Amino acid sequence: MVSLPSSASATIDAPSRLSIEFGDRSYDILIGRGVLSDAAAWQALPRAECAVIVSNAVVAGLYGAALQGALAAHYRRVLTVELPDGEAHKDWPTLNLIFDRLLAEGCDRKTVLFALGGGVVGDITGFAAAAYMRGVPFVQVPTTLLAQVDSSVGGKTAINHPRGKNMIGAFYQPRLVVCDLATLDTLPARELSAGLAEVIKYGPIADADFFEWTERHVDGLCARDPAAIAHAVQRSCEIKAAVVAADEREADVRAILNFGHTFGHAIEAGLGYGEWLHGEAVACGMVMASDLSARLGLVPRTFVDRMSALCERAGLPVRAPRLDGPEQWLDLMRLDKKAQGGEIRFVVIEQIGRAALRAVPQTLVRETLAAFCE
Ligand code: NAD
Ligand code: GLY
Q1: What is the rounded distance in angstroms from the CA atom of residue 300 to the CA atom of residue 130?
Q2: Residue 4: which of 295, 152, 207, 271 has the closest Cα?
Q3: Domain 16-186: assigned CATH number
Q4: Superfamily of domain 189-372
Q5: How far is the CA of 139 from the centre of ligand 1 (A)?
Q6: Closest ligand to 169 CA?
Q7: Residue 341 pLDDT class (50, 70, 90 cuts)
Q8: If you average pLDDT over every residue of the chain, what do you get?
């Protein structure tokens, strides 16, 4: 079990600052409206001659100039690399675009990378930072709800392989995370919903009170109520920071953050990356993993109904695609990073607010697949 900090009161007027504890690699998560263009408030930026903003055309068009302006006060050279947009481009050729540009510009090993965008940009930039000249510093500037509540925090970096999600990557912590809540104003509704899936995840795995809070506030979150969004980002980051600080490399408890992901990753890889959004696949996967938990006798069926209703109210899918039948599902899930010796392991809910990683009898997994696949 991880001991969680009590929830800080989230304010929409003043930025908040959380710390994620990794000894001399500890870093801050700055949360607030407008913080992206206020680099003076960030503190402790790595010193270098050159900063490189890695983004995509959509996000660079919206926020690239503001970040460039903020960084110009700190770095003599500020470059921007624009990647193609979308999950389908979280791959080797796109990763190489970053290396090509860094080398072409003569960027040295002090160069600081700034990941400006959603989880795709964050994961690929983090991996580039881990590998370029054996490691350069990087800063996460997440601009999707999903990236602010999950992917920018904790140092998992990766690209996809056609056979499996996030299969090639590294644990590599950023120096700072800057969550500007104002960037969420331009996020399409479908992407906001995808981010809500990861917010919803934290209650069942770690915080029963937060689960009830998400049930009470899901409509406000969908309507982008600023106070609700600020609290959701704050509490999600608090929980994620506590879990990751306890188990940086997923030897143990960090696996609970993958609630819903075993089914979800199979959906993403099975349909082809980008067909369903990551958060959509996770939402459906969480309802399926809740069903599995009920079949194991751990939680009552009413919990599955609550999860399903909550995800639906958040605009998320709760019925799964068939793929090529249960055998393809099982093949894809055997590739999951949590599998051991070919045995698939699932994050199950033991009671609301507590999760565990378990091998589950295949008959029960097949029952869940039969119940959910269209
Ligand atoms: P994404 O990065 O594809 O961004 C979603 C879309 O929103 C993109 O088209 C992007 O251009 C656009 N966008 C981004 N910010 C915007 C803004 N402010 N306004 C308008 N449009 C904006 O998707 P995502 O949901 O942010 O991230 C999903 C990825 O994150 C997946 O690859 C997943 O595997 C990864 N992930 C990683 C971790 C981790 O711990 N590293 C955790 C969860 C998810
Ligand atoms: N999103 C899962 C993790 O960070 O471990």
Answers
A1: 43
A2: 207
A3: 3.40.50.1970
A4: Dehydroquinate synthase-like - alpha domain (1.20.1090.10)
A5: 16
A6: 1
A7: confident
A8: 95
